[in-house]
Fold this sequence. Notes:
Layout: H1 5-8, E1 10-11, E2 14-19, E3 22-27, E4 31-32, E5 35-41, H2 62-82, E6 85-92, E7 110-112, E8 131-137, E9 157-162, E10 165-166, H3 169-179, E11 184-190, H4 191-201, E12 205-214, E13 217-220, H5 223-241, E14 255-261, H6 265-270, E15 276-280, E16 283-288, H7 291-303
Parallel strand pairs: 5-6, 5-8, 6-7, 8-11, 11-12
Antiparallel strand pairs: 1-4, 2-3, 9-10, 9-14, 12-13, 14-16, 15-16
Amino acid sequence: MQVRTRMTRMTFALGVLAFGGVALAVPANAQQDGLKIYISADMEGVTGAVTGDQLSPDGFEYQRFRQFLTDEVNAAIEGAREAGATEILVSDSHGNGENLLIEQLPEEVQVVRSWPRPLGMMQGIDATFDGVIFIGYHSSTSNPDGIRAHTTSSARLSAVRLNGVEMTEGSFCAAIAGHFNVPVIMVSGDDAAVTEVQAVVGDVEGAIVKWAYSFHSARTLHPSAGQELIRERARAAVGRLADGDFSPYTPDAPLRFEVTFKHYRPTQLLAYLPQIERIDSHTVRYVGDDMVDVSTFYTFMMSYDSNLQP
Length: 310
């Protein structure tokens, strides 16, 4: 398994010990340098969240669940720090991108907010990071299981594929991180979401905080128990970095990116663009050089509106 130089972080200085007139080289105290962690936070996978009542500003439980989301992100930060993380960037990646109660995050933590942004849920990731944590993630639009299962838009899309592989938001974001040679190390959410990300990305730490019964029903942990589980898994994930346990998810280029819409008019219009191939009535294909290219196109495709202001 390939191990990134920054991941190892174990530096052994040599001390010189004079004994019997002989100079001996011995290892000084091993020290792990500070690790840099990226946290992408969604909301459907937060402990206890099951319907739109918790997930949008007009929902009667939204303000409470903003607090729970913030608490889960803070739990991940605490666990990562306990294992050696010293620099953390958080991406507010749900809905309007303005969900986290940012004044409750540690002062030194920076936050990416609102839209549009070329790398979407992974805006701000680069090659200086050591690992990525997903908080509050959900399963994909093509998964028959999972709470609020969708990919990017439950109203507009019915499938997203990369090189023929069905994508969750988690695996798509993992591919963006992989472009920068950064591995995903942990995911939290319901059982379907965690299993689906692990099946594509690999043996990442998983914090299952609820178990899906249906699209809008689950058996769930208490919020405090969910936060403690997330703290434990984040600590374990960052601790495993030094052992080189994780590999970046890097689909082979060129990247065949296919999106299936629930309606056919978007594919008709997108096919007017010379870079787009309409491969059936509801599906278009874009071939990108790398994940930055694919993500930028995806952002444009899902965000553009000629009535946008200002």
